[in-house]
């Protein structure tokens, strides 16, 4: 492990988010640590996606703190600046650039929006090209590099989007329902991919409803309910928590 | 992998798509020599080919071709921002007009130096001398440079404010259209000192060449064709680079690009300013060919028409913009002479047919599947 890296990647304290009077998140405090895969579960409207929106700068909190490495206050930065700090995000619905080829999607991601002269000259370093080749292989699209992304299957688009995270090599990865709408086979493959994201220098956060999938990949599970933290622990302990059972199964 | 069950259809589709794509690329590159040949043909057609021959071109015809080339350049400029960056400007006439008006100021400088007679509208306004600021525009090279700088600055300020404020789509289109209208109203006012309603005319020389000379007019038409070629090659290079792909990505999902670390407003601003400068250059070449500039050059109608040319030709294809501008303006010049009352209905009809029956204009449809530019909306 990199000794310079602190344990805590994302530190959230007393976070509240409101939309026109509706409290999406209320006084939430939690931490995401390097080296772990964290799952966030909770019923619809629990504030899971809103939490990701706050971390990535899409939504501003009404109160509270969100820090990267305990030093950078994310609440003051915009989406671009936060992305450049190494926080990558995968959206719920696959959002690859459908008009572009698979490889071109990865090229966009590996540039981090930097180097306009290289963009105009379409230049990538040998190292960047190698990295793209590696990732194409990892996401099983090595023979589809020249294919227009819009023609990929749903599962392949999801993998391409994970690939776009991989080439950018972020410190924090946020995945919003990565296996929604996938076949069992695709889900298994995605679980493998996510397992490969795990690294001592990276924090991975996954929002997911599929409990089996969560049990398979997550080191730690946090349960959100109505914008608050209901419980935290291993999948086993969370599953047996009576409050979680009540929220999920009703009275 | 789940793509396995459908290899046959995919293979056949991709082969035909590849064929259309290759044909499309041939034509796209082919337009360069065609336009260069056209430019070379213009003086030949007038001076060498005898008048009785069908290949002979009258001065009127050559002048028309020159004007249409300016419109094609204007359409190319709009396609860069609309087709690639997704910014539908309904105000590109502003930049075209800026080029036109500044060129007119230069031309009036020349006329004044020659005749020492103030332009009519200045006399009418009671002026006794040529305005001092106008003297900046007494040389062509300075005028060109100042025009480029001024348009880039004006576009830069507008783009900086709107793109940073994340004003997009139809809101941005409405603002550009409103600004066009506002500028037109402003230019109508005599006190603005740009000729008001009647505009500016009475040009005599351009860089030492008499505008009334046949060779000057042919030269202008040739320059217009050649500038279109240069601009097309440059814009095409940019559009096909990683930068162009970043613009396409901004067009299709700007928010997603921000989460990848892109300063999307900077990308858009660059394309926007480049487009504005191209439009201004088109205006600079247009005005000496028509011999007058008046507020109609920034009429909302012209600015909307530019978008119609691009839409008819095929947005996001560059060549489509050129084809659309040539097609519609050719048709317009021909039909407004033959059937002036019917022309608006024909334009509307053609536009409707193309929007309803083709996915992306004439060129977009010819190019068919396999195009990297399809799939974009807005």
Can you offer a commentary on this structure?
- The complex is a heterodimer of chains A (251) and B (378).
- With 251 residues, chain A is an alpha/beta fold.
- Helices cover 36% and strands 25% of the residues of chain A.
- Chain A has 10 helices and 10 strands.
- In chain A, the strands form 2 sheets. In chain A, strands 6-7-8-3-9-10 form a 6-stranded mixed beta sheet, with helices on both faces. A 4-stranded antiparallel beta sheet of chain A has the order 2-1-4-5, with helices on one face.
- A two-stranded antiparallel sheet of chain B has the order 1-4. Chain B has a two-stranded antiparallel ribbon with strand order 2-3.
- The two termini of chain B are 33 Å apart.
- Chain B has one domain.
- Chain B has 14 helices and 4 strands.
- Chain B is mainly α.
- Classes of the chains: A alpha/beta (251), B mainly alpha (378).
- The interface between A and B is large, with 43 and 31 residues.
Mean pLDDT of chain A: 89
Low-pLDDT regions of chain A: none
Proportion in helices of chain A? 25-40%
Question: Mind summarizing the main beta sheet of chain A?
Answer: 6 strands, mixed
Query: End-to-end span of chain A in angstroms?
Result: 45 Å
CATH class category of chain A: Alpha Beta
Alpha-beta content class of chain A? alpha/beta
The gyration radius over C-alpha positions of chain B equals 22 Å
Order of helices and strands of chain A: EEEHEEHEHHHHEHEHEEHH
Q: Shape of chain B from CA axes?
A: globular
Return the average pLDDT of chain B rounded to an integer: 88
Spatial arrangement of strands, main beta sheet of chain A: 6-7-8-3-9-10
Number of strands of chain B: 4
Low-confidence stretches of chain B: 1-12, 369-378
Strand proportion of chain A: 25-35%
Proportion of residues in β-strands of chain B: under 5%
Estimated radius of gyration of chain A: 18 Å
Strand order of the largest sheet of chain B: 1-4
| H/I helix tally of chain A | 10
Q: Give the beta-strand count of chain A.
A: 10
- Helix tally of chain B? 14
């Amino acid at each position: 492990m990199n000794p310079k890296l602190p344990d805590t990647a994302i530190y959230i304290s007393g976070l509240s988010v409101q939309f026109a009077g509706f409290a999406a998140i209320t006084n939430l405090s939690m931490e995401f640590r390097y080296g772990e895969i964290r799952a966030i579960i909770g019923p619809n409207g629990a504030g899971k996606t809103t939490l990701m929106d706050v971390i990535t700068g899409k939504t501003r909190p009404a109160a509270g703190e969100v820090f990267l490495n305990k030093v950078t206050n994310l609440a003051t930065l915009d989406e671009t600046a936060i992305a450049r700090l190494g926080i990558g995000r995968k959206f719920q619905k696959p959002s690859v650039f459908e008009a572009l080829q698979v490889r071109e999607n990865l090229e966009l991601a590996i540039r981090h929006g930097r180097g306009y002269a290289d963009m105009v000259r379409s230049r990538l370093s040998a190292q960047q090209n190698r990295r793209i080749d590696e990732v194409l292989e990892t996401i099983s699209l090595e023979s589809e590099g020249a294919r227009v992304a819009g023609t990929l299957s749903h599962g392949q688009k999801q993998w391409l989007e994970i690939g776009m995270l991989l080439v950018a090599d972020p410190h924090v990865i946020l995945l919003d329902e990565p296996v929604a709408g996938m076949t069992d086979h695709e889900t298994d493959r995605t679980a493998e991919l996510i397992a490969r994201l795990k690294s001592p220098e990276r924090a991975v956060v996954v929002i997911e409803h599929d409990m089996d999938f969560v049990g398979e990949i997550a080191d730690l599970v946090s349960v959100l309910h109505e914008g608050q933290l209901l419980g935290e622990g291993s999948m086993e302990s969370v599953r047996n928590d009576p409050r979680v059972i009540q929220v999920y199964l009703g009275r | 992998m789940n793509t396995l069950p459908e290899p046959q259809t995919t293979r056949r589709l991709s082969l035909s798509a590849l064929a259309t794509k290759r044909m499309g690329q041939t034509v796209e590159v082919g337009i360069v020599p065609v336009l260069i040949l056209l430019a070379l043909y213009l003086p030949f057609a007038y001076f060498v080919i005898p008048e009785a021959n069908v290949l002979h071109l009258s001065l009127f015809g050559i002048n028309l071709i020159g004007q249409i080339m300016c419109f094609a350049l204007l359409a190319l400029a709009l396609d860069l921002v609309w087709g690639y960056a997704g910014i539908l400007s309904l105000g590109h006439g502003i930049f075209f007009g800026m080029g036109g008006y500044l060129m007119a100021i230069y031309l009036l400088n020349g006329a004044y130096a020659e005749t020492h007679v103030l332009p009519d509208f200045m006399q009418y306004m009671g002026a006794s001398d040529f305005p001092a600021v106008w003297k900046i525009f007494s040389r062509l090279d300075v005028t060109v440079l100042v025009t480029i700088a001024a348009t880039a600055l004006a576009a830069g300020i507008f783009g900086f404010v709107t793109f940073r404020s994340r004003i997009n789509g139809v809101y941005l289109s409405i603002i550009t259209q409103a600004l066009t209208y506002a500028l037109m109203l402003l230019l109508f006012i005599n006190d603005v000192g740009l000729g008001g309603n009647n505009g500016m005319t009475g040009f005599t020389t351009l860089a030492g060449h008499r505008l009334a000379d046949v060779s000057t007019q042919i030269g202008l038409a040739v320059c217009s064709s050649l500038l279109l070629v240069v601009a097309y090659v440059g814009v095409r290079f940019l559009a096909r680079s990683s930068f162009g792909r970043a613009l396409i990505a901004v067009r299709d999902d700007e928010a997603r690009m921000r989460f990848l670390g892109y300063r999307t407003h900077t990308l858009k601003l660059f394309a926007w300013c480049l487009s504005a400068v191209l439009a201004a250059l088109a205006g600079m070449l247009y005005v000496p060919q028509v011999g007058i500039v008046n507020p109609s050059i920034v009429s909302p109608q012209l600015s909307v028409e530019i978008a119609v040319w691009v839409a008819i030709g095929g947005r996001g294809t560059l060549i489509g913009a050129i084809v659309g501008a040539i097609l519609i303006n050719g048709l317009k010049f021909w039909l407004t002479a033959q059937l002036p009352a019917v022309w608006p209905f024909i334009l509307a009809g053609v536009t409707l047919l193309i929007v309803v029956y083709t996915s992306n204009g004439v060129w977009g449809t010819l190019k068919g599947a396999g195009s990297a530019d399809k799939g974009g909306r807005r």
